[in-house]
Amino acid sequence: MKDKSIHILNFVGLGFFEPAIRLAAGEEVKKNIIALLKKVLLPIVSVGLFLIIWHSGATYLYNVEKDARIEKALADRGEAAALEMETCIDSGDISCQPNTLPSPAQVWTAYKSLLVDHRVISEKKDAFSEKVAATNAKRKAQGLAPIKYTGRPSFVDQIFTSLKTVFAGFLLAFLIAVPIGIMLGLSTTLRSSVNWLIQIFKPVSPVVWLLLVFMIVKTLTKNSDSDSSFIISFISVGLCSMWATLVNTSMGVSSVDKDYINVAKVLQLSVGQKVFKIILPSSFPLIFTGLRITLSVAWMVLIAIELLAQSPGLGSFVWEEFQNGANDSNSKIIVAMFVIGIIGFLLDRLMLTIQKFVTFTEETA
Amino acid sequence: MAYIELRNVSKSFGTGKDRTEVLSNINLEIEEGEFVAIVGFTGSGKTTLINLISGLMMPDEGQVLFKGEPVTGPSHERGVIFQNYSLLPWLNVRNNVGMAVKEAFKKMTKKDRSKRVEDYVEMVNLSPAINKLPKELSGGMRQRVSVTRALSMSPDVILMDEPLSALDALTRGNLQQEILKIWNQDKKTALLITNDVDEGILMADRIIPLKPGPKATLGPEYKINLDRPRDKTALNHNEEYKKLRNGIMEYLIQIGEQRASKKENTYTLPDISPKIRFKPFSKISFS
Questions:
Q1: Which residues cross the membrane (chain A) (predicted)?
Q2: What percent of chain A has pLDDT over 90?
Q3: Which string of DSSP letters, residue by residue, matches B119-161?
Q4: Cα gap B90→B127, rounded to integer Å
Q5: Cβ distance B120 to B93 under 8 Å?
Q6: Cβ neighbours for B195, distance < 8 A, ≥ 6 positions apart
Q7: Out of A262, A268, A360, closest to residue B75 by CB
Q8: What CATH class does B4-77+155-262 carry?
Q9: How many Cα atoms within 13 Å fall on the side-chain side of residue A123?
Q10: Are A362 and B136 in contact (CB under 8 A)?
């Protein structure tokens, strides 16, 4: 049980919990306490320090903003107005709160309010689908599209929309980059013939890709009334992020150890077998490194692309909150920031775990 | 007609100014069932020679003949045991050997194939490790897998490219005996490339030194008329063995010296003396 859970933790890249488990099993107490201190407590301390710095920074900015408001009131409308402003701010009234970097506590409140909001919206949705269930069944029988809930999506819904977009984009990148990468890796002629194109397109910014995709998709979907923003954003994500995989795959395939190629020759493997049994397995580590970079780039550019493409998701959530300018908008943006960061981290761990499943490790134990 | 024959074989690498002729004018004949060892210094083109015979490389000049036919590429008939094992790290022992068996015996049923794999792995005493990955094996075990892989295809010739040079002395001795034991079973033609004269004498019927490259050629051959099976410790007191060993060593040392003397260049030093611009320590006073 103990060894198994340690193994699993190490496998998914959460090895820093290992000492805690060993400690729970009462194994080498002193050594494991030190290891636990190093691996778990120190990170917690640094997170705490970060929160303290954040809090004090936010307080300082709050005070600067507050003073500016009071002074402005004093200059514009006189002393009475200034006093009124000060009491208003101190009372915590929403109407006159200084708008600046939110403190950790405010962000936490915003996080909870987002969850509450999600619950409310989910309830509304359920109620709606219950209400239209009978109608939808009838419409289905008639061959009509069911009536969908068209209310505002909650924050959690936005997360799932973003994940959907990023996976669609990642899949697209995977389907384009890996086969092309393999072909490029196998043929020097092909590689040198498209090398310039790759070098030119690789550094192009996500925004430009979005515009390019927009130009094409807009024309192609002219006659359909479907929402093209999802298509635009996932294609842009795929195109931005595929380069790492493309380059890594072609490099991995072209740099297969000469010994393995010799083995393939001596065994007289056919071309197909050589590719699938020798070249691909031996370049898996590099391909997966590329895919990991691709996924993290995809997640990173997704936010920017959603923001610009007006497609639903975390990016547009951030942008809408910024435009909204409500008193808790800033806090919600910070919540989104953390959620984006944590999901990015989890996605990377997910890829790492898959990578460990399918690739070999070269070195001796 | 010899089983394997090399006629005036030359091989160069590089182009233009960087072109170096590694092997030059190699003539070699190996009879069926014979065990020939080629000894030489590192970098003398031994691996190139093996690659030419296995068909991984083509000669620039001359011909490599196998059973009277020119060699045009690698073939199952000539099994190669590589110096660095060249096992596929993502496959376990069973699959590494199985891949070779599958290629060599395409018509065999799956069951027969896996039986064959297991038999051959058993032969080198690796059955307990059959499901292990190469990284979980020691160097000696890996080389055994490599030997098994080559033999499982039942080649007519076994080409060994310094198969034991990366192993420690004890493992090396064991594996020498094992390879000899397997060779004894069906007396396949074998070519061993090595840098160890003792190993050559212990295993081969004939030893041929390879003069160091560039432009390496084969030296005079030494027949070994020692009775098989040969025992390493007993050999140490055998007069014939001592004579052979000394003869080959002397020859190798002699050609080694020739090579060293060839490289001797004289460099004339420019006639300059260092200039001292300032005296850094003169201003430091320790008061």
A1: 40-62, 165-184, 196-217, 229-248, 284-309, 329-347
A2: 22
A3: HHHHHTT-GGGTT--GGGS-HHHHHHHHHHHHHHT--SEEEEE
A4: 19
A5: no
A6: B39, B40, B41, B42, B46, B162, B165
A7: A268
A8: alpha beta
A9: 6
A10: no
Domain ranges of chain A: 2-95, 153-358
Burial code of B97-129, b = ≥16 C-beta within 10 A, e = fewer? bbbbbbbbbeeeeeeebbebbeebbebbebeeb
DSSP secondary structure letter of residue A38: I
Q: What is the fold of A153-358?
A: MetI-like fold (1.10.3720)
Peptide bond just before B214 cis, omega within 30 deg? yes
Q: Is A281 at the interface with chain B, CB within 8 A?
A: yes
Tokens of A239: 């195109």
Give the Cα separation of B191 and B79 in Å (integer).
Answer: 10
DSSP string computed for A330-345: HHHHHHHHHHHHHHHH
Say if CB B29 and CB B2 are below 8 A apart.
yes
Structure-block tokens of residue A8: 């699993």
| One-letter amino acid of B36 | V
Contact criterion met (CB < 8 Å) for A362 and B135: yes
pLDDT in tens, B162-214: 888 878 888 888 888 888 888 888 788 899 998 888 888 888 889 998 887 67
Token pair in block for residue A318: 């951030």
User: Are the C-beta atoms of residues B192 and B157 closer than 8 Å to each other?
Assistant: no
Q: Which among B155, B4, B158 has a CA at the least distance from the CA of B68?
A: B4
Under 8 Å CB-to-CB from B59, ≥6 apart: which residues? B9, B10, B11, B52
In whole angstroms, give the CA distance from residue A153 to residue A125.
10
Residue A231's alpha-carbon distances to A23, A122, A225, A274, in angstroms, are 50, 26, 13, 37
Query: Which phi and psi (to 5°) does residue B186 adopt?
Result: -130, 15
- Indicate yes or no: CB of A263 within 8 angstroms of CB of B84: no
Whether A100 has its CB under 8 Å from any CB of chain B: the answer is no
Full-model pTM:
0.77
Q: What is the pLDDT of residues B202-217, one digit of tens each?
A: 888 899 988 876 777 8
Q: Which residue of B has its CA nearest to A282?
A: B90
Q: Tell me the β-bridge partners of B222.
A: B207
CB atoms under 10 Å from CB of B261, counted, come to 8
Alpha carbon distance A307, A315 (integer Å): 5
- Confirm if B210 and B40 have CB atoms less than 8 A apart: yes
pLDDT-above-70 percentage for chain A: 96
